[in-house]
Amino acid sequence: MQVIKFENVIKSYQFGENELVVLHGISVSIEKGEFVCIMGPSGSGKSTFMNIVGCLDTPTSGKYYLEGIDVSTMDVNQLAEIRNKKIGFVFQQFNLLPRATALENVELPLIYAGVPSKERKQRALHMLEAVGLKERAHHYPRQLSGGQQQRVAIARALVNNPSIIFADEPTGNLDSKSSIEIMEIFKNLNEIQGLTTIIVTHEPDIAAFGKRQIRFLDGRIISDTKS
Predict the structure, then answer these.
(1) CATH number of the domain where residue 167 is located
(2) What is the tens place of the pLDDT at every residue in 27-57?
(3) Number of domains in the chain
(4) What percentage of the chain carries pLDDT values higher than 70?
Protein backbone atom coordinates (compact mmCIF):
# COMPACT_ATOMS: atom_id res chain seq x y z
CA MET A 1 0.00 0.00 0.00
CA GLN A 2 1.30 3.44 -0.97
CA VAL A 3 1.30 5.80 2.00
CA ILE A 4 2.81 8.72 0.09
CA LYS A 5 2.53 9.41 -3.63
CA PHE A 6 3.79 12.48 -5.47
CA GLU A 7 2.71 13.02 -9.07
CA ASN A 8 4.76 15.65 -10.92
CA VAL A 9 4.85 17.98 -7.89
CA ILE A 10 6.19 21.45 -8.58
CA LYS A 11 6.74 24.01 -5.83
CA SER A 12 7.62 27.58 -6.70
CA TYR A 13 7.63 30.93 -4.94
CA GLN A 14 6.92 34.30 -6.50
CA PHE A 15 9.17 37.24 -5.65
CA GLY A 16 7.71 40.20 -7.49
CA GLU A 17 8.15 39.39 -11.16
CA ASN A 18 10.63 36.60 -10.44
CA GLU A 19 9.68 32.98 -9.85
CA LEU A 20 11.89 30.62 -7.84
CA VAL A 21 11.20 26.96 -8.61
CA VAL A 22 12.24 24.82 -5.62
CA LEU A 23 10.84 21.45 -6.71
CA HIS A 24 10.95 20.49 -10.39
CA GLY A 25 8.22 17.91 -11.08
CA ILE A 26 8.84 15.36 -8.33
CA SER A 27 7.23 11.95 -8.80
CA VAL A 28 7.90 9.40 -6.07
CA SER A 29 6.01 7.01 -3.81
CA ILE A 30 6.68 5.51 -0.37
CA GLU A 31 5.09 2.25 0.71
CA LYS A 32 3.57 1.48 4.09
CA GLY A 33 6.23 0.25 6.53
CA GLU A 34 9.24 1.68 4.67
CA PHE A 35 12.16 3.35 6.47
CA VAL A 36 13.31 6.16 4.17
CA CYS A 37 16.11 8.67 4.67
CA ILE A 38 16.00 11.91 2.69
CA MET A 39 19.40 13.44 1.94
CA GLY A 40 20.76 16.47 0.15
CA PRO A 41 22.69 19.70 0.75
CA SER A 42 21.09 22.97 1.86
CA GLY A 43 18.95 24.37 -0.93
CA SER A 44 18.46 20.98 -2.58
CA GLY A 45 14.70 20.98 -2.06
CA LYS A 46 14.55 18.27 0.61
CA SER A 47 13.07 20.56 3.26
CA THR A 48 10.38 21.82 0.87
CA PHE A 49 9.63 18.21 -0.11
CA MET A 50 9.27 17.25 3.54
CA ASN A 51 7.08 20.27 4.31
CA ILE A 52 4.67 19.05 1.65
CA VAL A 53 4.90 15.44 2.89
CA GLY A 54 4.15 16.70 6.41
CA CYS A 55 1.15 18.75 5.22
CA LEU A 56 2.87 21.94 6.34
CA ASP A 57 2.78 23.26 2.76
CA THR A 58 1.00 22.47 -0.51
CA PRO A 59 2.28 22.00 -4.09
CA THR A 60 2.09 24.81 -6.63
CA SER A 61 1.02 22.14 -9.11
CA GLY A 62 0.88 18.35 -9.25
CA LYS A 63 -0.76 15.92 -6.83
CA TYR A 64 0.14 14.62 -3.38
CA TYR A 65 -1.76 11.61 -2.08
CA LEU A 66 -1.51 10.59 1.59
CA GLU A 67 -2.94 7.11 2.15
CA GLY A 68 -4.86 7.52 -1.09
CA ILE A 69 -6.35 10.90 -0.14
CA ASP A 70 -5.53 13.89 -2.35
CA VAL A 71 -4.28 16.44 0.18
CA SER A 72 -2.68 18.79 -2.36
CA THR A 73 -5.72 21.09 -2.50
CA MET A 74 -6.77 20.97 1.17
CA ASP A 75 -7.15 24.19 3.16
CA VAL A 76 -5.22 25.09 6.33
CA ASN A 77 -7.75 23.56 8.72
CA GLN A 78 -8.01 20.30 6.78
CA LEU A 79 -4.22 20.00 6.67
CA ALA A 80 -4.01 20.63 10.43
CA GLU A 81 -6.46 17.78 11.06
CA ILE A 82 -4.48 15.43 8.80
CA ARG A 83 -1.24 16.36 10.61
CA ASN A 84 -2.73 15.71 14.02
CA LYS A 85 -4.23 12.34 13.09
CA LYS A 86 -1.78 10.81 10.66
CA ILE A 87 1.71 12.29 11.15
CA GLY A 88 4.06 12.34 14.12
CA PHE A 89 6.76 15.01 13.97
CA VAL A 90 10.22 14.96 15.59
CA PHE A 91 12.51 17.98 15.19
CA GLN A 92 16.20 18.74 15.69
CA GLN A 93 15.42 21.33 18.40
CA PHE A 94 13.10 18.96 20.37
CA ASN A 95 10.46 21.76 20.60
CA LEU A 96 9.45 20.84 24.16
CA LEU A 97 7.60 23.32 26.36
CA PRO A 98 10.15 24.29 29.03
CA ARG A 99 7.60 24.81 31.81
CA ALA A 100 5.80 21.53 31.18
CA THR A 101 6.93 18.14 32.48
CA ALA A 102 7.84 15.29 30.16
CA LEU A 103 4.39 13.80 30.76
CA GLU A 104 2.63 17.10 30.01
CA ASN A 105 4.66 17.56 26.81
CA VAL A 106 3.66 14.10 25.59
CA GLU A 107 0.01 14.79 26.44
CA LEU A 108 -0.17 17.89 24.20
CA PRO A 109 -1.36 16.24 20.94
CA LEU A 110 -4.04 14.40 22.92
CA ILE A 111 -5.32 17.68 24.36
CA TYR A 112 -5.70 19.02 20.80
CA ALA A 113 -7.47 15.79 19.86
CA GLY A 114 -9.95 16.20 22.74
CA VAL A 115 -8.93 13.03 24.60
CA PRO A 116 -10.20 12.94 28.24
CA SER A 117 -7.66 13.68 31.00
CA LYS A 118 -7.43 10.19 32.52
CA GLU A 119 -6.90 8.52 29.14
CA ARG A 120 -4.38 11.21 28.16
CA LYS A 121 -2.19 10.48 31.17
CA GLN A 122 -2.38 6.71 30.64
CA ARG A 123 -1.43 6.96 26.97
CA ALA A 124 1.33 9.50 27.63
CA LEU A 125 2.84 7.34 30.40
CA HIS A 126 2.68 4.30 28.14
CA MET A 127 4.61 6.15 25.42
CA LEU A 128 7.23 7.41 27.88
CA GLU A 129 7.67 3.84 29.05
CA ALA A 130 8.08 2.72 25.43
CA VAL A 131 11.05 5.11 25.01
CA GLY A 132 12.54 4.18 28.39
CA LEU A 133 11.63 7.37 30.27
CA LYS A 134 8.67 6.46 32.48
CA GLU A 135 10.69 7.25 35.61
CA ARG A 136 11.38 10.77 34.25
CA ALA A 137 7.71 11.57 33.59
CA HIS A 138 7.62 14.45 36.07
CA HIS A 139 10.98 15.97 35.12
CA TYR A 140 11.18 19.22 33.17
CA PRO A 141 13.20 19.52 29.93
CA ARG A 142 16.01 21.38 31.74
CA GLN A 143 16.42 18.33 33.99
CA LEU A 144 16.89 15.99 31.03
CA SER A 145 19.86 15.36 28.72
CA GLY A 146 19.58 16.08 25.00
CA GLY A 147 19.02 12.41 24.25
CA GLN A 148 16.32 12.18 26.90
CA GLN A 149 14.59 15.30 25.56
CA GLN A 150 14.55 13.76 22.09
CA ARG A 151 13.01 10.58 23.56
CA VAL A 152 10.24 12.73 25.04
CA ALA A 153 9.75 14.32 21.62
CA ILE A 154 9.49 10.87 20.02
CA ALA A 155 6.94 9.78 22.65
CA ARG A 156 4.92 12.93 21.90
CA ALA A 157 5.06 12.18 18.16
CA LEU A 158 3.77 8.63 18.73
CA VAL A 159 1.04 9.27 21.29
CA ASN A 160 -1.69 9.80 18.67
CA ASN A 161 -0.83 6.51 16.89
CA PRO A 162 0.18 8.18 13.60
CA SER A 163 0.50 6.37 10.27
CA ILE A 164 3.86 8.04 9.62
CA ILE A 165 6.65 9.36 11.79
CA PHE A 166 8.64 12.16 10.22
CA ALA A 167 11.92 13.33 11.77
CA ASP A 168 13.89 16.36 10.58
CA GLU A 169 17.59 16.04 11.55
CA PRO A 170 16.60 14.25 14.80
CA THR A 171 20.22 13.67 15.85
CA GLY A 172 21.53 17.10 14.83
CA ASN A 173 21.92 18.32 18.43
CA LEU A 174 23.10 15.04 19.95
CA ASP A 175 26.45 13.39 20.61
CA SER A 176 27.32 10.21 18.73
CA LYS A 177 26.22 7.84 21.53
CA SER A 178 22.83 9.52 21.96
CA SER A 179 22.42 9.67 18.17
CA ILE A 180 22.80 5.91 17.86
CA GLU A 181 20.36 5.33 20.73
CA ILE A 182 17.75 7.57 19.09
CA MET A 183 18.20 5.89 15.70
CA GLU A 184 17.80 2.48 17.35
CA ILE A 185 14.41 3.66 18.66
CA PHE A 186 13.36 4.64 15.12
CA LYS A 187 14.68 1.33 13.79
CA ASN A 188 12.66 -0.64 16.35
CA LEU A 189 9.51 1.39 15.67
CA ASN A 190 9.89 0.55 12.01
CA GLU A 191 10.87 -3.11 12.29
CA ILE A 192 8.72 -4.16 15.25
CA GLN A 193 5.66 -1.93 14.87
CA GLY A 194 5.85 -1.50 11.10
CA LEU A 195 5.63 2.28 11.38
CA THR A 196 6.41 4.15 8.17
CA THR A 197 9.48 6.20 9.06
CA ILE A 198 10.89 9.16 7.10
CA ILE A 199 14.02 10.92 8.30
CA VAL A 200 15.79 13.96 6.86
CA THR A 201 19.53 13.90 7.51
CA HIS A 202 22.79 15.08 5.98
CA GLU A 203 24.82 12.48 7.87
CA PRO A 204 25.64 9.27 5.95
CA ASP A 205 26.00 7.16 9.12
CA ILE A 206 22.48 8.19 10.18
CA ALA A 207 21.08 7.59 6.68
CA ALA A 208 22.56 4.08 6.82
CA PHE A 209 19.88 3.15 9.38
CA GLY A 210 17.26 3.56 6.66
CA LYS A 211 16.39 0.84 4.18
CA ARG A 212 16.01 3.37 1.38
CA GLN A 213 17.90 6.59 0.67
CA ILE A 214 16.49 9.34 -1.55
CA ARG A 215 18.92 12.12 -2.53
CA PHE A 216 17.90 15.60 -3.66
CA LEU A 217 19.90 18.15 -5.61
CA ASP A 218 18.70 21.39 -7.16
CA GLY A 219 15.04 20.50 -6.62
CA ARG A 220 15.25 17.08 -8.24
CA ILE A 221 15.69 13.51 -7.03
CA ILE A 222 19.11 12.41 -8.26
CA SER A 223 19.15 8.94 -6.71
CA ASP A 224 16.76 6.55 -4.99
CA THR A 225 18.42 3.42 -3.64
CA LYS A 226 17.48 0.59 -1.32
CA SER A 227 19.92 -1.02 1.09
Answers:
(1) 3.40.50.300
(2) 999 999 999 999 998 889 998 999 999 998 9
(3) 1
(4) 100
Asked whether residue 81 carries a pLDDT value surpassing 90, the answer given is no
Q: How far is CA 138 from the centre of its chain?
A: 25
Residue 120 has what pLDDT? 93
pTM reported for the whole predicted model: 0.90
Q: Residue 101: which domain range?
A: 2-226
**Who contacts 16 (Cβ-Cβ below 8 Å, separation ≥6)?**
none
